[in-house]
């Protein structure tokens, strides 16, 4: 199977879809008191802003790329044999609902094993397009498989930090699923002592985008969903960095146990994490 059309066309579609979703979010941002909010599980909220933004994203993707599957956070969906869009219409929902201007629309295209991309057949599922759009700063992060990464059209690269000791590192605390807290908390304590500083801003897609442009030197988090990390993963990779499964069992961190950084900070971060991990085959 060969992807139809040029990847640049699909990237343009993803950008247009992200902007369509962001229009909905920003329309609601000034009227948060009017939002109807549901609780999916403890500390896992969804509002009509999420749902309507997702539908706006899906409409654009379905109109422009009907051949691809779609999997989205709020409405689910179905993968296709060739490639599947992976959508988070509002990454940072809690920030959004509390008026904290740090959230994003995240869209990735995952090409499935056996699909021909950029002249060769993929042996494993691979994120090949990533878009993370921050509407509050009007920052559009994007990337193409083997094509580079950009912020508002300008090339970006990961930082040149040579060690965690000189790194500002992002993370995310357990907030809805606490089953992995016994793995996470020792890594947090060790990172506090091993880095220049830690940040927890509450939007994984932006954490990864900020790794890609060098604002953060590394990042790790546990218990995320595929749509939280898919776009950011390809953006980091195309910016010269590493974004992988901390268990080293998946071709990309689909299960949401992710570490990322530049070629020096990421391996050091993984070495910090690994002694505390309970591997899925052992659990």
TrEMBL record:
UniProt cofactor(s): Mg(2+)
Highest taxon, organism lineage: Bacteria
Keywords, in A-Z order: Hydrolase, Magnesium, Metal-binding
Binding site for Mg(2+) 1: 73, 88, 91, 228
Annotated catalysed reactions: a myo-inositol phosphate + H2O = myo-inositol + phosphate
Residues that span the membrane, as ranges: none
EC number assigned by the record: 3.1.3.25
Protein family: Belongs to the inositol monophosphatase superfamily.
Name of the protein described by the UniProt record: Inositol-1-monophosphatase
């Amino acid at each position: 199977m060969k992807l139809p059309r040029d990847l640049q066309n699909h990237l343009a579609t993803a950008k247009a879809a992200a902007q369509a979703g962001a229009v909905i979010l920003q329309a609601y941002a000034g009227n948060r008191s009017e939002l109807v909010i549901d609780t999916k599980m403890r500390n896992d909220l969804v509002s009509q802003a999420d749902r309507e933004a997702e539908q706006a994203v899906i409409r654009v993707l379905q109109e422009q790329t009907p051949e691809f599957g779609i999997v989205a956070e709020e409405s689910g969906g179905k993968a296709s044999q060739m490639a599947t869009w992976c959508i988070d219409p509002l990454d940072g929902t809690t920030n959004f609902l509390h008026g904290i201007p740090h959230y994003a629309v995240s869209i990735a295209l995952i090409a499935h094993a056996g699909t021909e991309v950029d002249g060769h057949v993929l042996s494993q599922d691979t994120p090949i397009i990533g878009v993370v759009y921050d509407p509050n700063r009007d920052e559009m992060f994007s990337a193409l498989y083997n094509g580079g990464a950009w912020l508002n059209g300008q090339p970006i690269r990961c930082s040149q930090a040579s060690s965690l000791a000189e790194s500002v590192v992002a993370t995310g605390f357990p907030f809805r699923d606490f089953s992995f807290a016994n793995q996470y908390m020792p890594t947090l304590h060790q990172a506090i002592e091993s880095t220049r500083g830690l940040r927890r801003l509450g939007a994984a897609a932006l954490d990864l985008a900020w790794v890609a442009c060098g604002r953060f030197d590394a990042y790790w988090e546990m218990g995320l969903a595929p749509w939280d990390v898919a776009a950011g993963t390809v953006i980091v990779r195309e910016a010269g960095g590493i974004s992988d499964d901390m268990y080293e069992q998946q071709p990309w961190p689909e299960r949401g146990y992710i570490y990322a950084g530049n070629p020096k900070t990421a391996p050091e971060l993984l070495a910090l994490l690994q002694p505390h991990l309970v591997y899925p085959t052992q659990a």
